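Posting this for the archive.
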Amino acid sequence: MPPAMQSPQDLLRHGAPRLTDVEVLALLLQAGRSGPPATGLAGRLLTRFGSLRAVIRAPEEEIARLRGAGTQAPRHAARLAAAAELVRRSLLEQAREEDVIASPDALRDFLRLTLADREREVFIAVYLDNRHRVLAVEELFQGTLTQTSVHPREVVRAALRHNAAATIVAHNHPSGVAQASQADRTLTEQLRATLSHVDVRLLDHFIITPQAAISFAETGLL
């Protein structure tokens, strides 16, 4: 077993993949501060929230309750939020550079990071050029815990504004149900028909939950 790695020098010497989840978190929380490594707090964060994804989404008030956070809770919450945003932006950059249909992983991961932990339903549209590279991402509608009202004309209006050749839409299910409802299917058909009138193709509709990203195209619903 390799020795414990708890400093930036260890990371550079051994490489980030060798670090445990606790050590990665500790380095992030410790950045710019002197004193003992933050491995204790990092371990408590993982125990309390259960996963790295949940940790980086943790509310400041929940972090403040943990032993060792204290007055540094706002700083810790900001660092964790910045880490999540850094990953999200990196995935979006990757999606801008490649055909998201031929290489869908970056876009799928971006959608999950953007939508999976939202407390209310949110509908976003990803607008693509004729080579299926991302032109823009717009959050168009927000709803309740169980539904959102989507107006196809707004999706079309934004597509024309971005001069898009195609679009992929997505919304989350805060309930965690990874299944398309009849309302989801009806909306998809309405969007496809409306977009076709302005020569914009609807390539996919994703339903995002904390555990899954369901693709209408892959499941034969589109």
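DSSP finds nine helices and five strands in the chain. The beta strands are 122-128, 134-142, 166-172, 201-208, 213-215.
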